[in-house]
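User: I'm curious whether this sequence folds into something compact or stays loose and floppy. Could you predict its structure so I can see for myself?
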Amino acid sequence: MTKGEKTTIASVVTLVSIGTICWIAATVVVIAVGAMAKIIWTCIVGAILGLIGIRYSIRRNKRDAI
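Assistant: Here's the prediction. I'll summarize afterward.
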C-alpha cells in the first residue's frame, strides 16, 4: 500500500458494520412481509458474514500492529 491508500481500522469496521446493519434491517423487513424462506436465510447469512467480517478486520489489525 502506498501512503495515500492506507485505510484505518475504524473506517473498515464502520463500512462492514453498516453493511451488517443493512442485512439485519433487510431480515426484519422480509420477515414482516412474509417472504420465502430462501430470501430470509439469505439475509440471515449476510448478517452472519458481516459479523465475521468485523471480527476478522479487528483481528487482522491487531496482528499487523505487532
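Summary: Helices lie at 9-33, 37-64. Residues 10-64 form one domain.
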